[in-house]
Amino acid sequence: MKSNTQLLAQVTEFIGYEADLLDHKGYQDWLSLWTEKGLYIVPTDLDETDYLNTVNLALDDADMRRMRVARLENGESVSANSVGYTVRMMSRIRVLEAGDDVVIARCAMTLNELRHGKLVTYPANVEYTLKPVDGGFKLDRKVVKLLHADGFLRTVSFIF
Amino acid sequence: MSDLIDMKDVDAVCIGQRAADMVDDENGRVKKALYSDTEIFEEEQDLVFNKNWIFVGHESEVPEKGSFKTAWIGRHPVIMSRDRKMNIHVLQNRCRHRGATVCEGRKGKTNAFTCPYHGWGYGLDGSLRALPKPEEYDNVFNKEEMPLESLRWESYQGMVFATFNNDIEPLEEFLGGAKKWIDLFMKQGGGYPVKVLGEHRFNFPGNWKIQLENTTDAYHFPIVHKSFVTSLDDATADIFDFLDGEGFVEDLGNGHSVMVMIPQLVDLEADLEQPIPERFSELAQALRDEGKNEDEVKKLVRAAHGTGFNLNLFPNVSCSMAFFRVLRPVSVNETEIQHVALGGEGAPSAFNQKRMRLHEHFQGPMGFGTPDDGEAWERVQKGSMAGEDGWILVNRGMTKLRTSEDGNPQGAVCSETGMRGAYRKYKQVMSAAANAEEK
């Protein structure tokens, strides 16, 4: 078991790296961060944890992640072509569980999107389940709990 | 007093007629100002949303005693509740005392609706049960006179519609030719009663009629949804390549219309002898593992797609392939949409899970389809502001109509037959002749 300070630094580095990839549309590198069975989840119901038996905004396995990225990159989606940039701030990072096989962390995110010249803001809690590998991590589960998940959202053509 | 003309009503009739005149039925076009005229929008709230049957929910959303969901009729917040005798009620969400909402949240279970302001407590049927210090109302009013105001409601195949118009025809008469299609739509429970599984919610900066038009617009599909089609396997992509197929759009009357994109998926209980498509082999195996026999497996797999048609019901709901689309006008240039996912009550979990995953794939704010629709609609609202005056064209296919087996006008799948039907109804409900009589 590593010291908490060292682990927190590693987790923070990973979360920062992933956020940077997504803001700069480094989607192929982002795909390689995942375990094969990993799930990317954006729920509609913040009280729900049985995601497979619930309607989510997104519940992506490896195939769906690959297709989502292809859709954003292939130039065929008019909404993806209209997305300007996103800038996300990740903070309040806390390690909730520090096992040898799995590390669970939670943080706050504020994502800002410029859309047709207007700023749209998405505050969220984000939960990461990380698998330690070769001195780094693979992403096994990422749950993005938008503060207004059950409200009427603007449509989203980027990755949280 | 009776000789005096109420000027407010005269204004309203004039504005309604102005909107009606903007629909050029003969040439299949409407004035673009219908998307942005605020006076007309205000009048639509009364003439379209208060005077017609408005979808508020599905009976499965209030499954038990004490279940409720909140909804809207136009801009009116309402509650759909299930009382202790399992009767459904549609109530205005407004305390009779000082007007606060008595119920918040999307859905839930409760014993009573209690106003947070002064503690007036209402039963699930809306009756006023108790209030603090009632003696101060002695000889002022009786509790029986102050229930939550109840709306007339009727349902068809579990779809609950309510109205502020007590003189409107019965729901089934209003639905008319659409009933046959609702019956077909409800076969997608795969032998189980259709049930709401959850929903997506999103908004777009545009007028509600832009969404109303879209439900029977096949013409946009291969353009706007190219990125969705690319994400599919070849066999599924072929199914969605329907513009040159045998599909059609039929005007069902009363503003309702159906667009059949995939004729082989109109009746989900037919053609059950077909082999199971490769893309559903995993689902089929999961159903066998849950103990389903081969006939049941085939029925469930065929239903998993949803139907091959979109049924548009004027003015606020559609039965679209596998989900309900519900629209709500917020302002002249803002509309809120719900995409309600459906499955089978008591159906195998593998079936309902598949339905939810298919829903997430296309629908909602993060689906592979909805964001591109939203982008197109936003651009319609923005672009329609160009120029002092101008037309929106809905005349596609209008000279190539035939008569359907039910005696309705029918055009090609990518015709704008459904939109013209909706605007014809709109013209009728907005017209002075229709409203002068009442006023």
Automatic annotation (TrEMBL), chain A:
<dbReference type="GO" id="GO:0051213">
    <property type="term" value="F:dioxygenase activity"/>
</dbReference>
<keyword id="KW-0058">Aromatic hydrocarbons catabolism</keyword>
<comment type="similarity">
    <text>Belongs to the bacterial ring-hydroxylating dioxygenase beta subunit family.</text>
</comment>
<comment type="pathway">
    <text>Aromatic compound metabolism.</text>
</comment>
<dbReference type="Pfam" id="PF00866">
    <property type="entry name" value="Ring_hydroxyl_B"/>
</dbReference>
<keyword id="KW-0223">Dioxygenase</keyword>
<keyword id="KW-0560">Oxidoreductase</keyword>
<protein>
    <submittedName>
        <fullName>3-phenylpropionate/cinnamic acid dioxygenase small subunit</fullName>
    </submittedName>
</protein>
<dbReference type="InterPro" id="IPR000391">
    <property type="entry name" value="Rng_hydr_dOase-bsu"/>
</dbReference>
<dbReference type="GO" id="GO:0019380">
    <property type="term" value="P:3-phenylpropionate catabolic process"/>
</dbReference>
<dbReference type="InterPro" id="IPR032710">
    <property type="entry name" value="NTF2-like_dom_sf"/>
</dbReference>
Automatic annotation (TrEMBL), chain B:
<keyword id="KW-0560">Oxidoreductase</keyword>
<protein>
    <submittedName>
        <fullName>Ring hydroxylating alpha subunit (Catalytic domain)</fullName>
    </submittedName>
</protein>
<dbReference type="GO" id="GO:0005506">
    <property type="term" value="F:iron ion binding"/>
</dbReference>
<dbReference type="InterPro" id="IPR001663">
    <property type="entry name" value="Rng_hydr_dOase-A"/>
</dbReference>
<dbReference type="GO" id="GO:0016491">
    <property type="term" value="F:oxidoreductase activity"/>
</dbReference>
<keyword id="KW-0479">Metal-binding</keyword>
<keyword id="KW-0408">Iron</keyword>
<dbReference type="Pfam" id="PF00848">
    <property type="entry name" value="Ring_hydroxyl_A"/>
</dbReference>
<feature type="domain" description="Rieske">
    <location>
        <begin position="53"/>
        <end position="162"/>
    </location>
</feature>
<dbReference type="InterPro" id="IPR015879">
    <property type="entry name" value="Ring_hydroxy_dOase_asu_C_dom"/>
</dbReference>
<keyword id="KW-0001">2Fe-2S</keyword>
<dbReference type="InterPro" id="IPR036922">
    <property type="entry name" value="Rieske_2Fe-2S_sf"/>
</dbReference>
<keyword id="KW-0411">Iron-sulfur</keyword>
<dbReference type="GO" id="GO:0051537">
    <property type="term" value="F:2 iron, 2 sulfur cluster binding"/>
</dbReference>
<dbReference type="Pfam" id="PF00355">
    <property type="entry name" value="Rieske"/>
</dbReference>
<dbReference type="InterPro" id="IPR017941">
    <property type="entry name" value="Rieske_2Fe-2S"/>
</dbReference>
